Amino acid sequence: VMADIYQSTSVPAGWLVPMPYIALGRLVNASSKLSHVRLIVPSQQGQLNASKAVYPCYYDITFQRGL
Predict the structure, then answer these.
(1) Prediction pTM value
(2) 3-state class of 59 per DSSP?
(3) pLDDT digits (tens, 9 = 90+) for 25-50
(4) CA distance 22 to 35
(5) Contact by Cβ (8 Å): 40, 18
(6) 7 vs 67, which has greater pLDDT?
(7) How many CB atoms lie within 10 A of CB 35?
(8) What does the alpha-carbon distance between residue 5 and residue 43 come to, in Å, rounded to a whole number?
(9) DSSP states of 10-57 as a string?
């Protein structure tokens, strides 16, 4: 979705901040849970549109280890 909307596959630096604090895993069964983070990213660490317009963005993100 991000790549389609913002025409970029790069991940904003602010999205990487929680990485040292979460345990990444995979969905193994119906009761498995993903790492879930809610954060407010300052404009300088967000996606390009936020950097240009100087507004913070609120994100509700789930992280899952790739295949």
Answers:
(1) 0.48
(2) strand
(3) 777 777 777 788 888 777 666 666 65
(4) 6
(5) no
(6) 7
(7) 16
(8) 17
(9) PPPGGGGTTGGGS------STT---EEEEEEE-GGGS-HHHHHHT--E
